[in-house]
């Protein structure tokens, strides 16, 4: 493959996409197993699943839009909105289960007052838990994170598809890039996180640096491999 200005742009797009996936998951309320038992706030699954899920949804939404138009802004917007809907629907469904099946109020142990609504949190936290449900601030933060991941997924797929024109090949490499950045984010978070108000959120620069290095290497490899395929 010829290494020219266009190729450099593709590489940069993939790198930025990887960073969006890796950093974006820090916004998503990841509750893991504790959340599944209503002993922590957030979605009852892990960081890797949520990061890869938002990126993959962005990829699928971008692929659908690219079957209609190759306008980059519409493709990226489609990826962001698609992933935002996915994460939002997941949080909404989880909220129904928490409220109507488990019967717990939504409360965060990381803040005294919800930054969005201003509602007091401590009176609603059950003893022995670190909060439960998906409070308003977690929901808003999750939407931001989901859209960031979807935007990143769309950006990676878009660049790879323009290189080789093969949807399956582009998707395969894009998914690999999602997963690597998702695992890096998971190691950085180390368990659960509520969103941008969580003290753990301040660790995102560490993930940014690690994802930057990984994304550069992955971008170079994927561009040259798929470009020559």
Class of secondary structure makeup: mainly alpha
The residue-averaged pLDDT reads: 90
Largest sheet: 3 strands, mixed
Shape: elongated
H and E order? HHEHHEEHHH
| Number of continuous helical runs | 7
Note the beta-strand portion.
Answer: under 5%
The beta-strand count equals 3
Structure notes:
- The structure is a single chain.
- A three-stranded mixed β-sheet has the order 1-3-2.
- It has 229 residues and is mainly α.
- The chain is elongated.
- Helix 1 runs antiparallel to helix 5, helix 3 (47-66) crosses helix 4 and helix 3 (47-66) packs across helix 5.
- The chain has helices spanning 5-24, 32-36, 47-66, 72-102, 136-164, 167-189, 204-227, and strands spanning 40-41, 107-108, 130-133.
In short:
The chain is built from seven helices and three strands, in the order ααβααββααα. By secondary structure, it is mainly alpha-helical. The mean pLDDT is 90.
Give the tags:
single chain, 229 residues, mainly alpha, 3-stranded mixed beta sheet, 66% helix
Give the topology, please.
Layout: H1 5-24, H2 32-36, E1 40-41, H3 47-66, H4 72-102, E2 107-108, E3 130-133, H5 136-164, H6 167-189, H7 204-227
Parallel strand pairs: 1-3
Antiparallel strand pairs: 2-3
